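Moderator note: this is an archived Q&A kept for reference. The question asked for a predicted structure of one protein chain; the sequence and the answer are reproduced below.
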Amino acid sequence: TAERAIGIELPRGPEVALKRKLSASRAASTPVIKDASLTSAIFGGFSGCVAKTCVAPLSRTVIQMQLHSLHQDTGSMFTTMRGIWREGGLPAFWRGNMATLWHRAVTNCVNFPINELCKSHLHGCSDNVRSMISAFGGSFAGVCVGHPIDVVKTRLSAAKRFGYSGMFKTVSKIHMEEGLGAFYAGFRITVFAVVPNVACCFYLRDLFKQSPIPSLVSSRLGGWVNDGAVAGGAAGGVTAALFYPVDALKRQQQMGLAVSFFSHQGAVSTTVPLLRSRQGLLLCYRGLLPELIKVTCNTAIMFGLYDMLSAKQRKEH
């Protein structure tokens, strides 16, 4: 035949059926994984941005209170909120929110799909172990990618006190005055504190969803809050109470201790003076009340919206 004349031999019989089956299997599995990862990234990023925008006023209040040791102001949660109001009225509570949204979108777009991929590919272990490994894997990847934006967000939240204005101007100011290393200020304490923080939140959320309590609470609330929101809010509140002191130290290092933190002395030498200064250990708990409210609402909205979008997508397919 013409094919054999030019050196091409077409497969026949069972070989054709086998090759068609293998190619169909590859074509079916690869797009499913890609589509699932893309969908998880989009839903995770979107739900995180919506949640962060809703709790932005509390987030700015918490950061201002955490940075108390860097300036002379004192006061409670409401005193801090009045000070923010005097800076620029209602819009001042959303100052730096664009950087916050960039940070949340980037971290969630990495965190959620990696978390889901690990769950679907980890076999031979219990559900709790799989959930814990998946939570740590997604959390670590998200923190590594999103930490520079987190530094910019922290600087913008204290814009008036420390001379930062606008996201891109802040990026330029940090780069010109402190160098590229400043974008990873507090990175060590972030890895050792925020990674377990986020991982603990994801793990507890999966753990709480296995219990009947979220369904019971959801039904008591009339069904307008889904199980994911109840489990996510509870997980966020518990996690915030456990890890808040280290988060306060991280914020302070991101603002003014980047140089000593990257030096040979390490994290311990920068943490001990912070604990000894002024109010000692109580300084690390400044802003805990708004933090608990903020994180509980944030994780409830984020996980609830993510589960709602995922359920709707599954129904359509």
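Archived answer notes: Residues 140 and 282 are 29 Å apart (CA to CA).
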